[in-house]
């Protein structure tokens, strides 16, 4: 039902995070021995770029979410009442500020005219993130879009083997970026490995938000144009997070997201494909029509679930 917009946002953002790590590792090798100023400037660039990648990722997710909602609701009146009210309130507040500005948005008149028309999503501020991407800002944004608290409770939970949470790791990145952007000299200079770990944390935070948003939209609006993974081979039992597919109905790659939709009661869950095997060979991607494929997922597989590729 339009979740492919969100998946496209994920793919573009994941590539940017990966490219940034390549830059960090390559640039680290260029540091002249004993040149502290060079090291400070380089580290500062890493932080600024890591934050920029994170903010850009959430901007893409916001735009993709809006496109998804447009597919689900031709006009704002078709949205759930809470979303329609948020669309009107935020868009009118933006237009009100624009009305007194000497430099109005070029789309000002169109935005007023189409507040409740079929073109509403072109001008809506419903999914805009107007502040730095602190974890609390992202939580508020999720709440605005009616994402259940249970889908984002992981933000405050311990992260991996650390006593820190995913939220605190993101907040430290935002804080470090703000300090550098305001001219402060960073005191603790990370090496390439630790910096790449921080980028991975930001990437992981974003991906989990992607999964939460995808599961939310599937639960609320259905799987109108998701693509069925294929028929599950119930006779083959693999690991708790692996599913055997008799024949693939769609081409898939490692990193794709799959929605596990329960048959009957229960909420849909989204996980990523972490491994693909066919005929005992590990693959990064596999074509449509391939038979006897084992798909490893980042979520445990429950019985009586449909597997929809987003």
Automatic annotation (TrEMBL):
Domain RiboL-PSP-HEPN per the UniProt entry, residue ranges: 36-207
One matching Pfam family: HEPN_RiboL-PSP
Listed InterPro entries: HEPN_RiboL-PSP
This protein's name: MAE_28990/MAE_18760 family HEPN-like nuclease
Originating species: Amycolatopsis mongoliensis
